[in-house]
Structure formats: C-alpha cells, structure tokens
C-alpha cells in the first residue's frame, strides 16, 4: 500500500504545471497515468508504454534509428555504472562478468537490457501447407502436386487493370 502511494505521488509530479512540459509531453504523461491507474501497466511504466506504441507506428528507418540510439544509451549507462562501481566495463556480457567475480544481481537489468523478449503464441492445430481440407478429405490442385514434386510452378498472369 505504501509502495503504491509513493509511486502515485511521484507520478503526479510528472503532471505538475511547473515542469514546463510541452502539450505533447503532457498528453503522453496523462495517457500513461491513466493506463497505470486502470492497472493495464505497472506503476511508473505508463508513459514508456505510450511512447513505445508511438515508436511502433513510425517508419522502418525511424524505428531502426530509435533502436540504435537505445542500444547506445544502454551501453553508455552500463559504462557509467561499471565505472562507478570500479568494474571493468569492457565485459558487457553478464556471463563473463560472473566468471570474473565482478557481477552483482542488481546489475542484471543493465547487462541483459531492459526490454523483455516478446512472448510467442502457439498456433493450435495442424498445418500442412498443401491443399485444402474439405468434407473430411484433402483437396489437392495441380499446382499443389507440382509444388510437392518440385516441378516448375505455373506463372500467374495478372488480370485486371494496372495502375
């Protein structure tokens, strides 16, 4: 309960008018705050989720640039922490750091990165990749049989208007 109160008090500071935030920043902070209050995301992570969704809508080149910049920031942050703790920052791999004995579990997020691996959903059922299953039997076309046998696939001629 105290943890929640402290976080909500800290979060309300991001909406403070004395912070000189732009309109877009205020909207993102408000949207993140609403997500936190509804329980959709963890406390303190709402604005980050809103920004991540915005980044996903960007073009591919922009997304690649954002990802590259994020990696640079993480590497720089790790170097700062390692220098602060008198660790050899050349060892960016947590396994190597553990072997050398200069690893602490609190640094795990810095070594591993803050992003989680995307969870994969398992597709249910069997997928054959050939033909269609209708009325209890597998219907095969000539193209499907040629695909299996490895013969030349027929070229499809375009029909309709071209732009």
Describe the fold and architecture.
- This protein is mostly helical and 163 residues long.
- It has helices at residues 2-13, 23-38, 46-56, 60-84, 94-100, 108-112, 142-149, and strands at residues 132-134, 137-139.
- Among the domains are: 8-14 and 22-57, no CATH class; 61-114, no CATH class.
- The chain has seven helices and two strands, in the order ααααααββα.
- The protein has a two-stranded antiparallel ribbon with strand order 1-2.
- The radius of gyration is 26 Å and the shape is elongated.
- It starts with a helix and ends in a 14-residue tail after the last helix.
- Residues 88-92 have low confidence and may be disordered.
- Residues 141-163 are annotated as: Disordered.
